[in-house]
């Protein structure tokens, strides 16, 4: 939003907007007892990132910071998520005047469900068991379409009757397509029907951290007590278990224990079980032993419905033609769609203009110009063929000499990295090859890139050329 042409006025900065923070404060003023609000919440100040995905809250001193984190962080994060429709990373920081010279701006990230990178992981193993569910991510707020119909139906079934059919439920798909949302929905639904059900949502990275901690502290009994006694384990992004031997072993044990006591396991991943790299075969076959179901990128009508629904939650009526305009231009995933919507709403609010196609075009102009420069597979094939001095036709041919096969693998790798195309789609564009051939190329080149400096440099050059 910062590079407007000289003829245009840049949209007002959303950064640090008092609006969003003020809305949070106003809401808490209504929800909390007066004294609590006056003592703890009112004195807080905050800085909000451009896209409302991160909020840094400044607290006067360390004691208050700990208290806010313990008492209010979960509430703040679910409130912000409700308001923005996406997980918001919250950081607590000491207000500058209180900070010591050695720790000028100590920050403490707060665990935000669905936000794996927020490292509240430090104390996780010691905390009493919290379910870590994000109350805003329910079946009600998840728009249904053909892209997620089957996954949603299976998830609803599991929530209604855990421990029976579809155990484990393995949901896979690309980024930002609603896998995490669906998992939380299962947990929230179960809790709403059985308040004392033991449910845990956890990102696979956090599970790895817990294993490491248990190992360091020789606290595997505690660890087992924690994980093996659940009624429902929701574990996100299991591809992160790759190459983590000890974690895989512990997860295998937890898996067996949970299934034995008829507890349910729901997992997500960016690929189907057999596509998982560097995970033991015995785990992969367990993952695949219940129901494996994909979530696809949403189709146009579903994207429109998502936009209209999300705007509605904000109390805004989004005209259908605007929703169509945005949905046609933002195609990759729901997270991006939400980002686009937030920009439009902020732009309309700050300029006090009604939402129209013209306004959406203006609010999204950066994003639209990036979309227009989208990299195509054909472009990649041409660029790679030029670079390695082979014919474009060799990208589709069945020829196997290394001087041709290798550039072809590099092009496949770049196609996966730089476009939204699926493995089968890429295979199709490379002369009707099977998706496993593409997967093999992606893994091979990706792996070699880590080891071979020369290859890495060539890839950088190609990426820069393609990104323009
Ligand atoms: N069908 C849908 N209806 C409404 N909101 C959706 C839908 N699908 C996704 N979302 C929203 O899109 C955002 C991204 O979804 P989510 O975090 O669940 O994606 P993900 O598949 O887990 O992605 P990642 O692999 O990057 O973690 C969330 O805010 C989620 O609520």
Automatic annotation (TrEMBL):
Binding site for ATP: 176, 178-180
Protein's GO biological process: DNA replication initiation; regulation of DNA replication
Keywords, alphabetical: ATP-binding, Cytoplasm, DNA replication, DNA-binding, Lipid-binding, Nucleotide-binding
Domain of life: Bacteria
Residue span of region Domain IV, binds dsDNA: 349-468
The AAA+ ATPase domain, residue ranges: 165-299
Region feature (Domain III, AAA+ region): 132-348
Subcellular location(s) of the protein: Cytoplasm
InterPro entries per UniProt: AAA+_ATPase, Chromosome_initiator_DnaA, Chromosome_initiator_DnaA-like, Chromosome_initiator_DnaA_CS, DnaA_C, DnaA_dom, DnaA_N_dom, DnaA_N_sf
Residue ranges of domain Chromosomal replication initiator DnaA C-terminal in the record: 376-445
PROSITE patterns given in the database record: DNAA (PS01008)
Chain intervals for the UniProt region annotation (Domain I, interacts with DnaA modulators): 1-100
Gene Ontology MF, one: ATP binding
GO cellular component, one term: plasma membrane
Domain remark from Swiss-Prot or TrEMBL: Domain I is involved in oligomerization and binding regulators, domain II is flexibile and of varying length in different bacteria, domain III forms the AAA+ region, while domain IV binds dsDNA.
HAMAP family membership: DnaA_bact
Family, per entry: Belongs to the DnaA family.
Task performed by this protein: Plays an essential role in the initiation and regulation of chromosomal replication. ATP-DnaA binds to the origin of replication (oriC) to initiate formation of the DNA replication initiation complex once per cell cycle. Binds the DnaA box (a 9 base pair repeat at the origin) and separates the double-stranded (ds)DNA. Forms a right-handed helical filament on oriC DNA; dsDNA binds to the exterior of the filament while single-stranded (ss)DNA is stabiized in the filament's interior.
Subunit structure: Oligomerizes as a right-handed, spiral filament on DNA at oriC.
Protein name: Chromosomal replication initiator protein DnaA
Species of provenance: Rhodoferax antarcticus ANT.BR
């Amino acid at each position: 939003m910062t590079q407007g042409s000289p003829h245009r006025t840049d949209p007002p900065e959303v950064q640090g907007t008092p609006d969003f923070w003020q809305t949070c404060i106003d809401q808490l003023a209504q929800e909390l007892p007066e004294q609590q609000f006056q003592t703890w919440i009112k004195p807080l100040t905050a800085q909000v990132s451009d896209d409302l995905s991160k909020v840094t809250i400044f607290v006067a001193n360390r004691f208050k910071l700990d208290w806010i984190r313990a008492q209010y962080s979960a509430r703040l994060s679910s409130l912000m998520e409700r308001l923005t429709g996406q997980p918001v990373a919250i950081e607590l920081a000491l207000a500058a005047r209180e900070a010591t010279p050695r720790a000028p701006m100590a920050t403490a990230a707060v665990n935000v469900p669905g936000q794996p990178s927020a490292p509240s992981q430090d104390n996780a193993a010691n905390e009493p068991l919290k379910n870590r569910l994000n109350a805003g991510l329910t079946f009600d707020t998840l728009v249904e379409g053909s892209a997620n119909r089957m996954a949603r139906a299976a998830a609803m079934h599991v929530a209604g009757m855990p421990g029976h059919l579809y155990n484990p439920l393995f949901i896979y798909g690309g980024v930002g397509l609603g896998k995490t949302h669906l998992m939380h929905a299962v947990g929230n639904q179960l809790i709403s029907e059985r308040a004392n059900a033991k449910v845990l949502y956890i990102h696979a990275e956090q599970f790895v951290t817990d294993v490491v901690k248990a190992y360091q502290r020789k606290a595997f009994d505690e660890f087992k007590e924690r994980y093996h006694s659940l009624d429902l384990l929701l574990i996100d992004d299991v591809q992160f278990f790759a190459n983590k031997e000890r974690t895989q072993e512990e997860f295998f044990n937890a898996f067996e224990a949970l299934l034995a006591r008829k507890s349910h396991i729901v997992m997500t991943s960016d690929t189907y079980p057999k596509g998982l790299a560097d995970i033991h075969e015995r785990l992969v076959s367990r993952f695949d032993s219940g129901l494996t179901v994909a979530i696809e990128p949403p189709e146009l009508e579903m994207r429109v419905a998502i936009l209209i629904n999300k705007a509605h939650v904000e109390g805004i009526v989004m005209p259908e033609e605007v929703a169509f305009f945005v949905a046609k231009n933002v195609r990759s995933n729901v997270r991006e769609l939400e980002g686009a919507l937030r920009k439009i709403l902020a732009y309309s609010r700050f300029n006090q203009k009604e939402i129209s196609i013209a306004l959406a075009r203006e609010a999204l102009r950066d994003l639209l110009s990036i979309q227009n420069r989208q990299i195509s597979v054909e472009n990649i094939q041409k660029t790679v063929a030029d670079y390695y001095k082979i014919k474009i036709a060799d990208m589709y041919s069945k020829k196997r000499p290394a001087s041709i096969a290798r550039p072809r693998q590099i092009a496949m790798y770049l196609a996966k990295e730089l476009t939204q195309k699926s493995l089968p789609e890429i295979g199709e564009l490379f002369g009707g090859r099977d998706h496993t051939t593409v997967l093999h190329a992606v893994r091979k080149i990706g792996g070699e890139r880590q080891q071979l400096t020369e290859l890495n440099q060539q890839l950088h050059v190609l990426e820069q050329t393609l990104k323009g």
